[in-house]
Amino acid sequence: MAGIKQISTNRVSGVDQDRWLIRTIDATLKGPQRPARKGVFYPSALGNVCDRFLYKSYFGLLAEQPIDAITKRIFDCGDFLGYRYEKYFEKMGVLLATESPVKCEMPPISGRLDYLIKHEEHKTAIIELKSINTRGFKSLVKPKEEHNIQIQLYLNLTPHKYGIVLYECKDDQKIKAFSVPRDEKVWKDVKDRCLQIMEMTQMPEKCTGLSWCPCRRD
Asked: Which domains does the chain have, with CATH numbers?
């Protein structure tokens, strides 16, 4: 009878759950996300069309954001996705570099390209890896603009002329790989935008970003 009583006290709404384990995992994972370093533009930030956000990012005005346990697990899945593809490229015998730093002095830009691989037709290719849900994956007919800007930065700040934005659907692991040749006009537009932000004496008042822009919460 004692055993039956013990089992019944661990049941929640008819489902066996170990609440201690769930609570402890969540408590361990959640915490603050450090804001970006002041005085530097990052490729991920430059993919955001909102000048208010980019101003705050460059001038070190972004507040420290709390990260809940679910978001941390999502980020960690992205990290493991990167690890998997590193192993895939190694197995293919094409991996040249991973997480390679890319920098520009003026405007000050700092980033890391995901992979550099040998390519059958283009000698080398920069790979920008992204995960996406089924709905977004099905609608993709070209790289998202923020991802195009990221890879254009890497292409224009290195000798490499050809890139690929590689998407994996996080629900069924199907993939799409979009060709991205170097585009100097995109690079010029990014430079001009950075210099304009650096010269601003006041922060833009309104958020002009998409629904996910952090400025929407200000």
From this structure: 31-207 (3.90.320.10)
Closest CA to 109 of 52, 193, 50: 193
List alpha helices for 47-98, DSSP H: 51-58, 69-92
pLDDT in tens, 33-81: 776 788 999 998 999 999 999 999 999 888 777 788 888 888 778 888 9
Is the pTM value of this prediction over 0.90?
A: no
Question: Measured on CA atoms in the order 169, 172, 173, 176, is the torsion positive or negative?
Answer: negative
Cα–Cα dist 124/36, whole Å: 31
The backbone region for 14, taken as left when phi is positive above 0, alpha when psi lies in -120 to 50, beta otherwise, is: left
Give the count of beta carbons closer than 10 Å to the beta carbon of residue 55: 19
